[in-house]
């Protein structure tokens, strides 16, 4: 009989924590880049069209391959699902646990405790709204562009979904990155207290920046969508942008 005590440490929680951080980092960087690319519409239809055909590989292959968007969407969806699965273990498991947490949050009035709650709520919202959006871009990868995207917003009534998704994702990514920095000690420097205050300011700045950018982008897509409503379904074409690759 083996009488030796089992000194093995269970590494699963640490591994899951690492997976959550790594997938979260990737998704936050992706979403910030996504918002910047999406905002090309602020520079006009031509700019957004060039961005679209760039992602369809036109400037590399001389042909448009919307299927590339499907692959990218598939990859992001996989990371998104893994992140959500791993994060689910942090959800309050019962109504009783939730009540206890709420009382705790009220009595502590500590922003880092409240932001944890925001992460849970926004994560839950994104799980539904983000999945709808990802499925649409993956199944209709050719329907991205200045007119196609604007028609989707207005004629296909996607703007309310985008609005709620934007609020959820910008808060979740901003708060998530701040928490990652604290957790892994990134940018801690010599004075941890001072850098924490700075990081918090940066967090608010980044959230304000991407929220404004996203709202302006949605408003611009909607303006184009209303103007184009009578011709919904027609696609934008630009000989000039396509000549750029020749
Ligand atoms: C590879 C994956 C993705 C692709 C190709 C993609 C593409 C797009 C496109 C083309 C639009 C413009 C509107 C339209 O055409 O419907 C858009 C808007 C938007 N997407 Fe995504 N998206 C992806 C993933 C995500 C994810 C994972 C989220 C958040 C969970 C997200 C959040 C948003 C939001 C909030 C908007 C509204 C526009 C804005 O505020 O800039 N997207 N996306």
Short précis:
By secondary structure, the chain is mainly α. The protein is built from ten helices and no strands.
Structure, explained:
With 246 residues, this protein is mainly α. The chain has a single domain, classed as 3 helical TM bundles of succinate and fumarate reductases (Up-down Bundle), CATH 1.20.1300. Helix content is 74%, strand content 0%. It is elongated and about 75 Å long. The model has no long low-confidence stretch (mean pLDDT 92). Protoporphyrin IX containing FE binds next to helix 1, helix 4, helix 6, helix 7 and helix 8.
- CATH class annotation: Mainly Alpha
Roughly how many Å apart are the termini?
A: 76 Å
* Number of DSSP-assigned strands: 0
What does the radius of gyration come to? 22 Å
- Structural class by helix and strand composition: mainly alpha
CATH architecture: Up-down Bundle
Fraction of residues in β-strands: under 5%
Globally, the shape reads: elongated
Mean pLDDT: 92
Bound molecules: protoporphyrin IX containing FE
Q: Descriptors for this entry?
A:
single chain; mainly alpha; 3 helical TM bundles of succinate and fumarate reductases; binds protoporphyrin IX containing FE
